[in-house]
Automatic annotation (TrEMBL):
One of its GO terms (biological process) is negative regulation of membrane protein ectodomain proteolysis. It comes from Rhinopomastus cyanomelas (Common scimitarbill). One of its GO terms (molecular function) is metalloendopeptidase inhibitor activity. This is Metalloproteinase inhibitor 2. Belongs to the protease inhibitor I35 (TIMP) family. PANTHER family: METALLOPROTEASE INHIBITOR, METALLOPROTEINASE INHIBITOR 2. It is found in: Secreted. It comes from the Eukaryota. The gene is Timp2. The lineage of its organism: Eukaryota, Metazoa, Chordata, Craniata, Vertebrata. Disulfide bonds join C111-C159, C116-C121, C129-C151. Gene3D superfamilies: 2.40.50.120, Tissue inhibitor of metalloproteinase-1. Chain B, domain 1 (3.90.370.10). Pfam families: TIMP. Keywords: Disulfide bond, Metalloenzyme inhibitor, Metalloprotease inhibitor, Protease inhibitor, Secreted.
Length: 178
């Protein structure tokens, strides 16, 4: 799990399929800003399929957009991502998600988050946090819990949702007359 910018992209061969045809991948050269979880070595390149039709992820290579990327690391400065991996622009994260990435999520590494797909649902042990966004917010994977809470281990060994930073009390629209 890293925070990074993509600075360039090129199509590369990554071996052959079972018929001997070359397999193409997009190789993104990245500038890693921070490693949240992964190998000791910085990630230099991210590889993905050449289009979303074959589960590839497209990244902006202007070097301006920062991404939060969770993928599969080879430990040698290379990472692979697909449509199934978490890739989000840093600016799209809530203040709680940013703060939790930097300070809180490591407190929950021993906790298990269990998805609740329909009500009622229950935890089976004290080291679980029940994630209800899907069931309570019409199949929303980016709901209130995901944006404003972190599952952390408490001093008694149990796990619970922690609300670290409240969202604004009301929405403001900044409009100026021309």
């Amino acid at each position: 799990v890293i925070r990074a910018k993509a600075v360039s992209a090129k199509e590369v061969d990554s071996g052959n399929d079972i018929y001997g045809n070359p397999i193409k991948r997009i190789q993104y050269e990245i500038k890693q800003i921070k490693m949240f979880k992964g190998p000791d070595k910085d990630i230099e390149f991210i590889y993905t399929a050449p289009s979303t039709a074959v589960c590839g992820r497209l990244l902006d290579t202007g070097g301006k957009k920062e991404y939060l990327i969770a993928g599969k690391s080879e430990g040698n400065g290379k990472m692979h991502i697909t449509l199934c991996d978490l890739v989000a622009t840093w600016d799209s994260l809530s203040p709680t998600q940013k703060k939790s990435l930097n300070q809180r999520y490591q407190m929950g590494c021993e906790c298990k988050i269990s998805r609740c797909l329909s009500i009622p649902c229950f935890v089976s042990s004290s080291d679980e946090c029940l994630w209800t966004d899907w069931a309570m917010e019409k199949n929303n994977v980016d709901g209130r819990q995901a944006k404003h809470y972190a599952c952390i281990k408490r001093s008694d060994g149990s796990c619970a949702w922690y609300r670290g930073m409240a969202p604004p009390k009301q929405e403001f629209l900044d409009i100026e007359d021309p």
